[in-house]
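Let's do one together. I've listed all components of the complex below, 229 residues spread over two lines.
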Amino acid sequence: SAVISQKPSRDICQRGTSLTIQCQVDSQVTMMFWYRQQPGQSLTLIATANQGSEATYESGFVIDKFPISRPNLTFSTLTVSNMSPEDSSIYLCSVREGAGYGYTFGSGTRLTVV
Amino acid sequence: GNSVTQMEGPVTLSEEAFLTINCTYTATGYPSLFWYVQYPGEGLQLLLKATKADDKGSNKGFEATYRKETTSFHLEKGSVQVSDSAVYFCALINAGGTSYGKLTFGQGTILTVHP
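Okay, and this is what the predicted structure of the assembly comes out as:
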């Protein structure tokens, strides 16, 4: 299965600033996704990162707050903009290698906003 | 819409005890079903999967059978170890509709195994 490198692994940020999270995959994949896991909660899909076009956001998430780039089939970034303490979460990127396969997840970025 | 419901935790067991974590789902069509595990401080790892009715997924001593008649995918292990302490997530990939191809997660079940 694909190997995902996600960085940074953790960060502590000041409110009002932005953080960009990178996700690098060791093979070309069609589908890349970004999830949020709030403390003690399950995972919530933020958006699907589409190569060559704008990301597709889920209800409750907007591009101005979570801009996403997908310049090629092996890389994507998620930016958490104008952060507040409520953005403190684990952010995970994920890929799906094809129909019938599960998703492979990166190790996550633990973000704390102070 | 699609949803996954897991038994509420946390679950606390002694080493070598039998484990069951219940999972039921609601979905259109014929979803694929998964169990993911998240060890402390780590990301999610795929534990096992089943893609059609009556399939049994298995890995590391864990098993789960896709039961379409009861819309269930319960996770079992005959003898747990301390190293199995983690959060377990049941999930499905939507087989159709507007959420095609997207993972839907249950709320997660915390498992703690004591020596």
